[in-house]
Design a protein that fits this description.
- The protein is an alpha+beta fold and about 350 residues long.
- The chain is built from 13 helices and six strands.
- It folds into two domains: about 25-225, Orthogonal Bundle (Endonuclease III, domain 1), CATH 1.10.340.30; about 235-345, Nucleoside Triphosphate Pyrophosphohydrolase (Alpha-Beta Complex), CATH 3.90.79.10.
- A hairpin with a 2-residue loop joins strand 5 (about 290-300) and strand 6 (about 300-310).
- Helix 2 (about 50-60) runs antiparallel to helix 8 (about 135-145) and helix 8 crosses helix 11 (about 185-200).
- The structure holds iron/sulfur cluster (SF4).
- Iron/sulfur cluster (SF4) binds near residues 220 and 224.
Length: about 350
């Protein structure tokens, strides 16, 4: 720890950042970050589009998984211009498996709306684009364009709540605290350093306080698990029925609608067992057999799917060319195994 007049003893009420210079506590975090940051590809670039893609992915996808999608996405759509020319389905195919498909659809919308223009260079300008919230706008504005605006993601929230021993920090409090810490000399690096501290040291379950550059003045370190309190999460349980209708060339898929999986393709579903009969009629299936249950969890939803297998005189689709959700991939595995095992003859 660097000693000096700017050394904070307790974060509560302490006048943190000083305009025009980098204070000791800021230098400590930046030094820690320079030594410990992971060599992630979106940290090696100032390309606003590549940073945007990374930040959108990282909102709901773990870093190790996001790496793969980041490379795939930029290889296929290396610039906003290429993305603007792409069809939604083509983009969803590249995004397949990453989940939260709304993000991919919004990226396409954003590229088309810009129509070949560059991304706005300010937080306020970025916020006006479809699908861009305060986190993404702050990340792109600070990292790509050096605007002094603080990001608040889950990692930053946890660090700040512990630093100030806050059980239930409000979004306004978090924004104000994050902004008060920001190093205006290099806000992009500062934001990444704070997020990295939350990702590597101030982690949810076993924070490594002994390795933390801010341990000397953290108000919550004696009982970090108290801060912040978990947000109440209500998980809706949903039961649906799916028809895996095997056509002449492959299974029959429908294009999904709605906010959750809209734009992707999947097995026809109904919300009541009696509705399966209608699906049989729709696809010319004489008889269907129950072949098992598939369970899948989304963030706020747990879905149980009762799967029926039948044969249809229709063509069907090759699942390799359709963007399918993880849920539908699970149903596909079950249905293909049932066909191989000869389930209909049971
Ligand atoms: S001292 Fe511990 S609880 Fe406090 S910020 Fe560092 S890692 Fe988190």
């Amino acid at each position: 720890m660097v000693a000096g007049r700017t050394r904070p003893t307790n974060p509560r009420g302490y006048p943190w950042a000083v305009p025009g210079r980098t204070c000791a506590f800021q230098k400590e975090l930046l030094a820690w970050y320079a030594k410990n940051k992971r060599p992630l590809p979106w940290r090696q670039t100032r390309d606003p589009y590549a940073i945007l893609v990374a930040e959108v992915l990282l909102q709901q996808t773990r870093v190790d998984q996001a790496l793969n999608y980041y490379h795939r996405f930029l290889e296929k759509f290396p610039s906003l211009r290429e993305l603007a020319c792409a069809g939604e389905e083509e983009v969803l195919k590249v995004w397949e498996g990453a989940g939260y498909y709304r993000r991919a659809r919004q990226l396409v919308r954003l590229a088309k709306e810009l129509g070949g223009r560059e991304l706005p260079r300010t937080f306020a300008g970025l916020l006006e684009l479809p699908g861009i919230g305060p986190y993404t706008a702050a990340a792109v504005a600070s990292i790509a364009f050096g605007e002094p605006v603080a990001v608040v993601d889950g990692n930053v929230r946890r660090v700040l709540a512990r630093l100030w021993a806050q059980e239930n920090p409000t979004p306004a409090w978090l924004r104000e605290r994050a902004q008060s810490l920001l190093d205006p000399q290099d806000p992009g690096t500062w934001n990444q350093a704070l997020m990295e501290l939350g990702a590597l040291v101030c982690v949810p379950k076993q924070p490594r306080c002994s390795a933390c550059p801010w341990a000397a003045f953290c108000a919550g370190k004696s009982d970090p698990h108290r801060f912040p309190q978990p947000r109440p999460r209500r998980v809706k349980v949903l039961r649906v029925w799916a028809l895996a209708a095997r056509g002449r060339q492959g299974f029959i898929f429908e294009k999904r609608e709605g906010p959750l999986l809209g734009g992707l393709w999947g097995f026809p579903l109904v919300h009541e067992a009696q509705g399966v009969g209608k699906l049989l009629e729709r696809y010319g299936v004489d008889r269907a057999w129950p072949i098992g249950t598939v369970r899948h969890s989304f963030t706020h939803r747990a879905v149980t799917v009762e799967v029926y297998l039948g044969f249809s005189p229709l063509q069907g689709d090759d699942p390799r060319v359709r963007p399918l959700s993880r849920l539908d991939r699970k149903i596909l595995v079950l249905a293909e195994a049932a066909v191989v095992e000869g389930a209909p003859r049971l």
